[in-house]
Amino acid sequence: MSSRTNKPGHLFVISAPSGAGKTTLCKALCERFPDIRFSISYTSRPSRADETDGVDYYFITKETFIKGIENGKWAEWAEVHGNFYGTSSELLNRTLSAGHDVLLDIDVQGAMQIVRNYPDSVTIFIMPPSPEILRVRLESRSTDSSDVIATRLLNAEKEMAEKDRYRHIIVNDRLPEAIAELISIVEKYHR
Ligand code: 5GP
């Protein structure tokens, strides 16, 4: 249990190229530490069939998102694969001030904004074992077209080039080991 004191919570930031297994790792982390608050992002991308508004994301229009940029609503925001994604400053600050640890699952551009604004945040980058394995993983997701896969691979290369800007790097070669490594990093900070 997190002891709620006057101390603000820790901010954990996880990034990874798509296909590196980030969603599975974040899920395992939240199961191990149920009191860590997973930050629900806002996005202008349409919801997928298995997603719920207010659970997976807050789905908003592009216009509303842009208004949020103008009004300084976002603690960080980025355009990823043609869609806008952002974290509400107000929600984030309120949760941290209440003493809760928070987990952000965001892209590299957003993570760098968070580091500037929250220099104590604990940044973690998840690497796939190799570019070949990443390609195979992305191709095996039958939902994505070859164009989408090509864009994601290009994006993955750009993201992986930034990995040294993170405090911790985990190579997701074998899942149980990657989960154990992630948990041991978080344990060092989590109250
Ligand atoms: P997806 O559309 O597959 O759910 O997410 C695509 C990418 O957007 C992922 O890399 C995810 O981490 C990133 N993302 C999700 N929410 C946010 C956010 O609030 N801010 C930023 N910068 N990236 C986000």
Description of the molecule:
The protein is of the alpha/beta class and 191 residues long. β5 and β6 (83-88) form a beta hairpin. The mean pLDDT is 93. Helices cover 41% and strands 20% of the residues. The chain is globular, with a radius of gyration of 16 Å. A 5-stranded parallel sheet has the order 2-7-1-8-9, with helices on both faces. The chain has 7 helices and 9 strands. It has a single domain, classed as P-loop containing nucleotide triphosphate hydrolases (Rossmann fold), CATH 3.40.50. α1 packs across α7 and α5 runs antiparallel to α6 (146-160). The chain binds guanosine-5'-monophosphate.
CATH topology: Rossmann fold
- CATH superfamily, by name, is P-loop containing nucleotide triphosphate hydrolases
Tally of strands: 9
* Unreliably modeled segments: none
Strand order of the largest sheet: 2-7-1-8-9
Largest sheet: 5 strands, parallel
Given helix and strand content, the structural type is alpha/beta
Sheet-strand content, in percent, reads: 15-25%
- List SSEs in N-to-C order: EHEEEHEEHEHEHHEH
The helix tally amounts to 7
Question: Mean of the pLDDT scores?
Answer: 93
Q: How does the overall form come out from the CA principal axes?
A: globular
CATH C-level label: Alpha Beta
Terminal-residue CA separation: 8 Å
